[in-house]
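Our preliminary data section would be incomplete without showing what the modeling component actually yields. Below, a chain of 66 amino acids is followed by its predicted structure, encoded as tokens that our downstream tools consume directly.
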Amino acid sequence: MVMVNGEPAQQAAGQTVFAFLTGRQAPVDNIVVELNGEILHRPQFETTQIQPDDKLELISFVGGGR
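Predicted structure:
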């Protein structure tokens, strides 16, 4: 089963990382994706397919301040 940020994601396997992120309405331009311990570069999002036993960590950046 695919794990995303430590939680099971049953529908993730078989999708590209880009399709998975857009399906979750994730901020693709402001997100870092770690797949099985390796950082994916943004151009890889559309070509990397999520496999059934993958582990994804999604980190999004939020601006703020004064």
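DSSP finds one helix and five strands in the chain. The two ends are 42 Å apart (CA to CA). Preliminary results of this kind motivate Aim 1 of the renewal.
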